[in-house]
Design goal:
By secondary structure, this protein is mostly helical. It is about 40% helix and about 5% strand. A hairpin with a 6-residue loop joins strand 1 and strand 2. Helix 2 (about 30-50) packs parallel to helix 3 (about 70-75) and helix 2 (about 30-50) runs parallel beside helix 5 (about 115-135). The longest helix has 24 residues, at about 30-50. The chain starts with 5 loop residues before the first helix and ends in a 17-residue tail after the last strand.
């Protein structure tokens, strides 16, 4: 792995995300997916280094996190995993075999034909994961808002219903009992 700093990872994340949006707008879901996958990887590694490991460059990443395994990286950041129906894997168009999350970048890079509905779900999940990874940069982690914390309706936002969570397990808007990322 080429050693880079947190600021370089963040710049790469932003550049790759812009290019992914352009590719998606041009009707290129595989190219968009590939670029978005790498943007998420950069985001997760940057936030792990800065927020968890308190390091400034990738030389501080343990060997098990020097990979393309977005699940492992998200778990190390304590981001909430997808629910039972896993949107971070896709079925091949022919044969229906599964491409797991850690292999999606290869499928997109090498042109594997994936089912359109799975690919669309994976792209949306990657966008959500990118947003969640940015939570550390904005001063709090993102967690799925499961209710029960007493937050008023205005405390949650977006289609995925997320609430900002501070390290103490309290909603950042001030109501106790927010769901902590697992």
């Amino acid at each position: 792995m080429v050693e880079v700093g947190v600021s370089e990872l963040r710049r790469s994340r932003d550049r790759l995300e812009r290019q992914a949006k352009a590719a998606e707008g041009a009707g290129e879901p595989a190219t968009s997916g590939l670029l978005l996958f790498y943007a998420v990887e950069c985001a997760l590694k940057a936030e792990l280094l800065r927020g968890v490991l308190h390091r400034n460059d990738t030389s501080g990443l343990p060997s098990d996190l020097r990979s393309h395994d977005l699940r492992r990286l998200a778990k190390a950041l304590k981001l909430k995993a997808p629910e039972a129906a896993d949107p971070l894997r896709c079925r091949r168009r022919r044969g229906g075999g599964w491409i797991e999350c850690r292999e999606l970048h290869e499928a997109w890079r090498y042109g594997a034909e994936l089912r359109a509905e799975d690919q669309k779900a994976a792209l949306e999940s990657l966008k959500a994961l990118l947003d969640d990874a940015r939570g550390g940069e904005r001063g709090g982690r993102q967690a799925l808002h499961l209710g029960g914390c007493g937050c008023p309706p205005g405390a949650v936002r977006g289609r995925r219903q997320v609430a900002r969570v501070a390290d103490g397990g309290r909603c950042l808007v001030g109501w106790p009992g927010a769901v902590r990322p697992s």
